[in-house]
Design goal:
It is built from 4 helices and 15 strands. A 5-stranded antiparallel beta sheet has the order 8-7-9-14-15. Strands 1, 2, 4 and 5 form a 4-stranded antiparallel beta sheet that branches. It is of the alpha+beta class. Helix 1 packs antiparallel against helix 2 and helix 3 packs antiparallel against helix 4. It is globular. It has one domain: Alpha-Beta Complex (Creatine Amidinohydrolase), CATH 3.90.230. A hairpin with a 2-residue loop joins strand 4 and strand 5. The two termini are 13 Å apart. The structure holds magnesium ion (MG). The site of magnesium ion has 5 residues, from loops.
Length: 250
């Protein structure tokens, strides 16, 4: 998983270096596919299935501004100065998966947008810091939620991080919040006590406005209903008997 994570980190770095005004999201997808294949890794997202939907058509997800997650790269989608783009990629390498995402400013972005990205980074760091014994997944989720909400942002309720291993999506779900009243909540999660060797993706999705979401007609792209901007940053980590280890670093 460390090797798979390293390849994901290299791929994200290659895309980050290519982000500039005028680049299409399909070009970023091409860069990612080349990087994965050069390292002998297979793209996890390509052809990923979802009920009642076409399989996911590309190697990365590319989500711009008010698009939260799962944007589909396109040759007619050009990055503009002042945009932000979330780039998410996963790979399979020798039987194991790595999964990570970055949110990158395009050219010069406003101070408010820089703050949104920094807060998303901080929420991820809080989730990672909470990923230690004897905590539970609820502690991780609450660490992310408190960090995000204290900075003045809302979090996505319906989309979560997840266990990662030989599959991209394994139990448990790793939410970015926890219901205050678990019995009454419309959405519930299974709480799990952390154990050394557990590996999962933490992926805060912070929203500058309200956290009501919509899915576009392409069956994949998730946007904020009020078109407020959002950021999404992800690492796959391992729980140990000491500090958590980030697997998706160079
Ligand atoms: Mg993920």
């Amino acid at each position: 998983m460390r090797e798979a994570g390293r390849i994901v980190a290299r791929t994200l770095q290659a895309m980050r270096e290519a982000v500039r005004p005028g680049v299409t999201t399909l070009e970023l997808n091409r860069i990612a596919e080349t990087c994965l294949r050069d390292h002998g890794a297979a793209p996890t997202f390509l052809n990923y299935p979802k009920p009642d939907s076409p399989n996911f058509p590309t190697v990365i997800t590319a989500s711009i501004n008010h698009e939260l997650v799962h944007g589909i790269p396109s040759g007619s989608r050009f990055l503009k100065d002042g945009d932000i783009i979330s780039l998410d990629v996963g790979c399979n390498y020798q039987g194991f998966v790595g999964d990570a995402a970055i949110t990158v400013p395009v050219g010069e972005v406003s101070p408010a947008v820089k703050r949104l990205i920094a807060a998303t980074d901080a929420a991820l760091a809080a989730g990672i810091q909470a990923s230690r014994l004897p905590n539970t997944i609820r502690d991780v989720a609450l660490a992310v939620q408190r960090s995000a909400e204290n900075a003045g942002y809302s979090v996505a309720l319906e989309y979560t991080g997840h266990g990662v291993g030989q599959q991209m999506h394994e139990p448990p779900e790793v939410p970015n919040w926890w219901p205050r009243n678990e019995r009454r909540s419309r959405i519930r999660f299974e709480n799990v006590t952390l154990r050394p060797g557990m590996t999962y993706a933490i992926e805060p999705m912070l929203i500058a406005g309200r956290n009501e979401l919509r899915e576009l007609d392409d069956h994949w792209t998730v946007v904020t209903a009020d078109r407020s901007w959002c950021a999404h940053i992800e690492h796959t980590i391992a729980v140990t008997d000491g500090d958590p280890v980030i697997l998706t670093l160079l």
